[in-house]
């Protein structure tokens, strides 16, 4: 392990078919006034809403609802929730949904008692330290897998007016309830989008460094588990073992452990954030469309790791092949897997137009792992992603 680090993850996880039973235990630790944050209403159709409300009533909580959080959660909704927190002296936030709902709930907590003029600019754009002000604790009930927000500090918010999507670390949920069965009602599109989101989180941490790092072995194991279980889940979306493996891998992927003592990359995420700011596409699908062209562009600068990726993950036979051939074959295998699962692999399919590409490129950050790339290079990558 090349670099010193400190690790602390304060989120308590309740995992399994009966995990919701623990919500009552946790709610007793907090005050009476609860902000219940959720999305577009799917939890009402699948019965999760009624189960949660019943527990809240049993615990004699006063419930305030903030609903209709969208995928790629909007700054306006975050500020609406923040105002509800302050106006109603909320004691605790319960976020029930996928990563967008959880991200938005974290943002609501951070913004509620912010005393400056522009919380989004300060915290998300400029990444200023959090003020020493009141933060309302949150807990989560996860219904869609992918972001890992249930076990990390991240919060990604979209300023739809200025077309800026930005993320930063705020704080972890106090607890998260993970019942794999709660994800069964997600569409196949949502499921595979979340699967690639998880895969991308692992790759962003993996494709960096040239040392023999324990974290890389952890990432490889998680990645192989996701690929194995994804193939099963695509064929049988209610296979509990497969969906539970995917759910736990997704939480572990961003819990902090896989990236320890690594430099990391995160350029694919940086580009995708601006892609979805312009198209409002599903995050995981945007990552999928960008990843293969991006990695084909940078692989030579981290050739040893891409060769390892091809051999360890995709079992590429290197006999009679150059390292470059092996590395590219590994990326090809990833693309084949994505198509096999029904993932989106072109920007055109996500609603992007050629006219958007320069704006997306120029608003994306210039960063990268094995190779630092410029706006001009991002534009070339986007063109390769288009169709």
Automatic annotation (TrEMBL):
Annotated coiled-coil segments of the chain: none
Segments forming domain Alcohol dehydrogenase iron-type/glycerol dehydrogenase GldA: 10-180
Spans through the membrane: none
Statement: the UniProt record of this protein carries the keyword Oxidoreductase: yes
GO MF term set: alcohol dehydrogenase (NADP+) activity; butanol dehydrogenase (NAD+) activity; metal ion binding; methylglyoxal reductase (NADPH) (acetol producing) activity
Pfam family, one: ADH_Fe_C
GO CC annotations on file: cytosol
Residue ranges annotated for the Fe-containing alcohol dehydrogenase-like C-terminal domain, each copy included: 192-385
The protein's Enzyme Commission number: 1.1.1.1
Annotated signal peptide: none
Keywords assigned by UniProt, alphabetized: Oxidoreductase
Keyword Oxidoreductase in record: yes
Designated name of the protein: alcohol dehydrogenase
Species, as recorded: Piromyces finnis
Higher taxonomy: Eukaryota, Fungi, Fungi incertae sedis, Chytridiomycota, Chytridiomycota incertae sedis
């Amino acid at each position: 392990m090349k670099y010193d680090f400190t690790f602390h993850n304060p989120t308590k996880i309740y995992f399994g078919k009966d995990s919701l039973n623990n919500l009552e235990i946790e709610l007793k630790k907090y005050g009476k006034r609860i902000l219940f944050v959720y999305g577009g209403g799917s939890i009402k159709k699948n019965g999760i809403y009624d189960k949660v409300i019943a527990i809240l009533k049993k615990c004699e909580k006063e419930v305030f609802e903030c609903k209709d959080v969208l995928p790629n959660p909007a700054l306006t909704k975050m500020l609406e929730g923040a105002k509800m927190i302050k106006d109603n002296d909320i004691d605790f936030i319960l976020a029930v949904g996928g990563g967008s709902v959880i991200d938005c709930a974290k943002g609501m907590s951070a913004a509620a008692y912010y005393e400056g003029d522009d919380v989004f600019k300060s915290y998300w754009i400029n990444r200023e330290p959090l003020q020493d002000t009141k933060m309302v604790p949150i807990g989560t009930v996860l219904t869609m897998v992918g972001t890992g927000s249930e076990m990390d500090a991240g919060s990604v918010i979209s300023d739809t007016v200025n077309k800026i999507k930005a993320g930063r670390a705020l704080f972890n949920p106090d607890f998260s309830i993970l019942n794999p069965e709660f994800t069964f009602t997600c569409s196949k599109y949502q499921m595979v989008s979340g699967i690639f989101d998880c895969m991308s989180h692992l790759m962003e941490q993996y494709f960096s460094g040239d040392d023999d790092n324990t974290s890389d072995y952890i990432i490889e194991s998680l990645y192989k588990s996701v690929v194995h279980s994804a193939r099963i889940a695509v064929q049988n979306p209610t296979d509990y073992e497969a969906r539970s493996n995917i759910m736990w891998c997704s939480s572990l992927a961003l819990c902090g452990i896989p990236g320890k003592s690594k430099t990391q990359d995160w350029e694919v995420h940086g580009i995708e954030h601006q892609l979805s700011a312009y198209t409002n596409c599903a995050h995981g699908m945007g990552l999928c469309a960008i990843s293969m062209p991006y990695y084909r562009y940078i692989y030579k600068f981290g050739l040893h790791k891409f060769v390892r990726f091809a051999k360890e993950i995709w079992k590429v036979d290197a006999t009679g092949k150059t390292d470059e051939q092996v590395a590219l074959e590994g990326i090809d295998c990833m693309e084949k897997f994505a198509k096999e699962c029904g993932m989106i692999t072109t920007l055109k399919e996500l609603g992007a137009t050629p006219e958007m590409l320069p704006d997306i490129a120029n608003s994306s950050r210039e960063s990268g792992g094995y190779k630092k790339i410029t706006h001009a290079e991002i534009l070339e990558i986007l063109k390769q992603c288009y169709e």
